[in-house]
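ARCHIVE CARD
CATEGORY: sequence design from structure
SOURCE FIELD: tokenized fold
FIELD CONTENT:
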């Protein structure tokens, strides 16, 4: 199914996903988690995927990151066509970085922040590693005093800043963000969202931003795909969400829940 919204964008495509089906399990218990999902993301765009728990958002990100096997459809990122059953190339793994919801789970508990940031760079043959670590910690607002601390000595928000720094040292062109602030308190969430906005403004990174929270998605993204039970039910500009002009009844339901759960001031203050 062609993605109508992307046809309006003259920019180069960063992510192309057409007719994506993803399954978990085998035989009678095989579960069709993503059904015929299609969308395109332009270079430098921030594209959101919003939907309730279990709607297939993380599953799509995992396919794009090269983490999941049982899928079919057309998927390419930065011109690299992904093939079912094969791990992505080194260059792909460098240019496409993922940030997870739980920053504690994604950081090795016995490695210092310095080691955590340096190792991936070493693995990819970067030079000036120390300089890059310090500058990444500065960019995410932590500073070099954090270099030799361990994850358990940091707050949740600080750990998520480290996870962002770890992705940024590799100079990715695409960031896959899986509910990156859902585990954080509202005020810390706003700080981390602002940091991500700065990153995109300064570096021009393409974002694929997943959240169950329509307010966060509308604030962070240019366009949004709405998912329900494995299907993309609607793709629309975020401005239509903020204006309350949504077509699909499910999107309307999400919008009503969002404003019922969160005062509008919070959404604007993020
Ligand atoms: N590893 C897995 N094994 C089996 N089923 C899974 C697995 N991961 C996700 N699922 C199922 O796939 C569906 C989509 O999950 P997920 O992509 O995690 O949703 P979301 O991120 O939108 O909450 C859900 O029904 C979930 O239970
Ligand atoms: Mg998820």
């Amino acid at each position: 199914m062609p993605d109508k919204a992307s046809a309006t964008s003259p920019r180069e495509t960063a992510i192309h996903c057409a007719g994506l089906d993803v399954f978990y399990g085998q035989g009678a218990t095989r579960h069709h988690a993503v059904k015929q999902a299609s969308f395109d993301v332009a270079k430098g765009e921030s594209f959101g995927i919003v939907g309730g728990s279990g709607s297939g958002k993380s599953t799509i990100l995992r396919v794009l990151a090269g983490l999941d096997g049982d899928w079919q459809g057309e998927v390419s990122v930065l011109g690299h066509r992904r093939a079912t059953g094969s791990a992505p190339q080194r260059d792909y793994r460098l240019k496409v970085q993922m940030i997870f919801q739980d920053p504690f789970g994604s950081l090795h508990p016995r490695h210092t922040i310095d080691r955590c940031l340096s190792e991936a760079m070493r693995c990819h043959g970067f030079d000036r590693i120390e300089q890059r670590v310090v500058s990444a910690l500065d960019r995410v607002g932590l500073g070099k005093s954090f270099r030799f601390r361990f994850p358990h000595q940091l707050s949740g928000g600080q750990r998520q800043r480290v996870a962002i720094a770890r992705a940024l040292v590799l100079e990715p062109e695409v960031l896959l963000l899986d509910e990156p602030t859902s585990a954080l308190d509202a005020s810390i969430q706003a700080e981390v969202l602002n940091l991500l906005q700065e990153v995109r403004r300064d570096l021009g990174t393409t974002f694929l931003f997943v959240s169950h929270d329509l307010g966060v998605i509308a604030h962070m993204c240019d366009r949004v795909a709405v998912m329900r039970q494995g299907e993309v039910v609607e793709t629309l500009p975020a401005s239509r969400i903020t204006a309350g002009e949504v077509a699909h009844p499910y999107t309307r339901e999400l919008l009503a829940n969002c404003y019922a759960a969160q005062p509008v001031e919070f959404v604007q203050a993020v």
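CARD ANNOTATION: Residues 57-58, 178 surround magnesium ion (ligand 2) (CB under 6 Å). Strands lie at 13-24, 31-42, 46-51, 71-77, 80-81, 96-99, 174-178, 206-211, 223-228, 231-237.
SHELF: design records, drawer C
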